[in-house]
Amino acid sequence: MIRIRMWRIEIMKTTISPPRYTV
């Protein structure tokens, strides 16, 4: 479940941008 962690960090970093990962 490392992807979820990376995905969460990415979303936090790019909050203005739309979510690229849809899990």
What does this structure look like?
- With 23 residues, the protein is mainly α.
- It is built from 1 helix and no strands.
- The radius of gyration is 8 Å and the shape is elongated.
- It starts with a helix and ends in a 10-residue tail after the last helix.
Kindly summarize this structure in a few lines.
The chain is built from one helix and no strands.
What would the principal axes of the Cα set say about the shape? Answer: elongated
State the helical fraction. Answer: 40-55%
List the total number of helices: 1
Separation, N- and C-terminal Cα atoms: 11 Å
Q: What integer is the average pLDDT?
A: 69
What's the Cα radius of gyration? 8 Å
SS strand fraction? under 5%
> Which structural category fits the helices and strands?
mainly alpha
Largest sheet, strands/sense/barrel: none
Task: List the topology elements.
Elements: H1 2-13
What key attributes describe this structure?
23 residues, mainly alpha, 1 helix, 0% strand
